[in-house]
């Protein structure tokens, strides 16, 4: 039997219960639609089309014009606001929750963890975890503060939302977290992609022995033609500390900048995780999101 989900925060445990016939709703203070907007790297034609869909969705949610939303790749001369996602989370999800007790257009606002969960509208299974505080991205110095929330583990704790869209049939190793670097994203609010691992990524990660990565070292193979540094962590470590500080130490020790760092987390064995970091450049960004498959085709392979 595939390994199922362990515990996650009690509020999110209550929220994930889905006893309606409409698969697009989850339990909150009332039944709330979770077909909301997300954000996506637009580095090729397929992703560019999704970015355009994002433009329209955000424009509708913020009552802004299409030109004032965020439709384009980050370095596109026609790119508009990179703050659209932040405005949705802060102005609509958080403030709406404070005023009315509802989260829309987010799936959930969790004040205890300082996060919101947001359903990507154009991908069937992907969710985004976002801070309620203003945190621009992986490069933000706030992530290095000891008081910073453990956003990565909070994203992992929300994995059951993805599984619930797949009849709760998703084993933990098929869940994959990803964060894109500053020059490979369209939004300047930290957002952790929670989705399925791509079958190709899952296949090569089967080669990993966590004992070989007690310290940082490069993987012996590439992922999507890119070199990733890897560090194995157990569940207790993952839950008890922010791994962003480990990432920062590694990237700066290599003489690189967090602006170009891309981060991912994979579950490679019971209670064992692999923290992955790719160090790109200004001209050659590396997006960890490309290691995911938002259609979750791996579910068909598992069945």
From TrEMBL:
GO cellular component, one term: plasma membrane
Species this chain originates from: Mycobacterium lepromatosis
Enzyme Commission number: 3.6.1.26
Subcellular location: Cell membrane
Record GO terms (molecular function): CDP-diacylglycerol diphosphatase activity
Metabolic or biological pathway: Lipid metabolism; Phospholipid metabolism; CDP-diacylglycerol degradation; phosphatidate from CDP-diacylglycerol: step 1/1
The reaction(s) this protein catalyses: a CDP-1,2-diacyl-sn-glycerol + H2O = a 1,2-diacyl-sn-glycero-3-phosphate + CMP + 2 H(+)
Top-level taxon of the source organism: Bacteria
Encoding gene, per UniProt annotation: cdh
Topology with respect to the bilayer: Single-pass membrane protein
Family: Belongs to the Cdh family.
InterPro entries reported in the protein's UniProt record: CDP-diacylglyc_Pase (IPR003763), HIT-like_sf (IPR036265)
Chief location category: membrane
Organism classification: Bacteria, Bacillati, Actinomycetota, Actinomycetes, Mycobacteriales
The protein's name: CDP-diacylglycerol pyrophosphatase
EC top class, as a word: hydrolase
Keywords associated with the record: Cell membrane, Hydrolase, Lipid biosynthesis, Lipid metabolism, Membrane, Phospholipid biosynthesis, Phospholipid metabolism, Transmembrane, Transmembrane helix
GO biological process: CDP-diacylglycerol catabolic process; phospholipid biosynthetic process
């Amino acid at each position: 039997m595939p390994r199922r989900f362990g515990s996650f925060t009690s509020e999110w445990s209550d929220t994930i219960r889905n006893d309606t016939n409409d698969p697009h709703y989850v339990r909150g203070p009332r039944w709330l639609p979770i077909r909301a907007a997300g954000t996506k790297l637009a580095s090729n034609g397929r992703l560019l089309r999704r970015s355009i869909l994002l433009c329209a969705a955000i424009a509708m949610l913020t009552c802004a014009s299409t030109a004032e939303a965020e439709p384009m790749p980050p370095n596109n001369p026609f790119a508009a606001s990179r703050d659209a996602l932040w405005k949705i989370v802060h102005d609509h999800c958080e403030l709406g929750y404070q005023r009315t007790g509802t989260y829309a257009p987010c799936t959930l606002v969790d004040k205890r963890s300082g996060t919101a969960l947001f359903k990507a509208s154009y991908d069937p299974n992907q969710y985004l975890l976002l801070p309620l505080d203003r945190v621009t991205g992986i490069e933000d110095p706030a992530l290095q503060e000891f008081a910073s929330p453990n956003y990565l583990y909070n994203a992992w704790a929300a994995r059951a939302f993805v599984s619930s869209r797949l009849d709760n049939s998703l084993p933990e190793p098929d869940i994959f977290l990803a964060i894109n670097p500053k020059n490979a994203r369209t939004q300047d609010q930290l957002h952790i992609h929670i989705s399925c691992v791509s079958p190709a990524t899952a296949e090569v990660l089967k080669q990993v022995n966590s004992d070989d990565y007690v310290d940082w070292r490069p993987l012996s193979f590439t992922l999507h033609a890119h070199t990733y540094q890897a560090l194995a962590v157990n569940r207790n470590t993952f839950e008890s500390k922010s791994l962003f500080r480990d990432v920062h130490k590694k990237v700066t020790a290599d003489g690189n900048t967090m602006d170009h760092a891309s981060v991912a987390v994979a579950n490679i064995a019971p209670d064992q995780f692999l923290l992955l970091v790719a160090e790109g450049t200004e001209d050659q960004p590396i997006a960890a999101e490309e290691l995911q498959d938002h259609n979750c085709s791996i579910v068909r392979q598992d069945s």
